Structures are given as C-alpha cells and as structure tokens.
Amino acid sequence: MDEDQKKVEISFLTNGPTQYDYLREQFQDLIKKFNLELQQISKMFDIPTNEINNLMKGSITITDEKFEEIEYKLTMLNFGFEGFNAKNRVKSILNRLLTEYELSTESLSKIINVAEKELIDFKEDQLLEKNIEIEICVNIIMLNFTLHK
User: Fold this and answer.
1) Claim to verify: residue 68 and residue 110 sit in the same structural domain
2) What is the CATH classification number for the domain harbouring 56?
3) Residues 6 or more apart in contact with residue 125 via CB below 8 angstroms
4) pTM higher than the cut 0.90
5) Phi, psi of 47 (to 5 degrees)
6) Of 79, 100, 123, which one is at a domain's C-terminal end?
7) How confident is the model over 24-42, as pLDDT tens digits?
8) In the chain, which ranges are continuous DSSP H helix?
9) Helix, strand or coil for residue 1?
C-alpha cells in the first residue's frame, strides 16, 4: 500500500461523519423532501422536539437501540417507498408472517378471512380481482400491525 492510500484511509477513519452527523443529514433530507415540521418528526420518531433540536446541533446522546430504531425509520421514510411497489411490499410482509409465526397459508387465510386459493394466487402473482387483492393487502397489513403492536 503506498503512502497516499494510507493517508486517505486514515483521513477517512478520523474525519468521517459521526452517527450524529448521519442522523442530522437524514433528518434534514426527510424534512426537506416531505416538507415536514419538527413537531411532526417528533411524533414520528417518538423524540421530544428539544432533543431533535439538540441532535441537529450535535449535542445529544442516544442509546444504540434508539439509534437503530431512528435509523430504520429514516431509511424507510427516505428510501423505502421508492422503487418497491405496494404489492411486493405486502408480499414481503405476508412471507414474513408465514415464517415468523410458522403459519400455513390455510391458517393465515382463515385469520385474514380470504379463500386459501386466493391467498396462494396472490403470493404467486396470479391475476386476481382488484377487490380481492385489496382485501388481502389491507388484511395482511392490519394483521402485521396487530401482531407487532
């Protein structure tokens, strides 16, 4: 490794952005992108407004757990809804519910009140009537919300 590469690596390690710089930048992007106010951000992230102000100034301490929660929400809000269509998002939730709770499609279809064949067809990207597709999507999202509340 030549001397210039060492200098670049050292510079990157010592002068790189901190986790607070990262959060501040992501919050600023979110505020600008969606025209949000600090009060709205406060409610979305369950952080008091004064702590968000302190974060923007770089003078706040948060736990690693809280950082991960904030980072997850920021990522989803800033990037999670672009380029990933709604049906695929619901199918991802559906597959996670089946796996996480070890449910069969039969059980899940009964829970969300749709025919098992319709649920399987939805999962396999078969053509369904729009109202059935909407019912599956809404019920999967509500079930996910209920189980993770």
Assistant:
1) no
2) 1.10.260
3) none
4) no
5) -130, 130
6) 79
7) 899 999 999 999 999 999 9
8) 3-15, 19-34, 38-45, 49-57, 64-79, 86-100, 105-111, 116-123, 130-148
9) coil
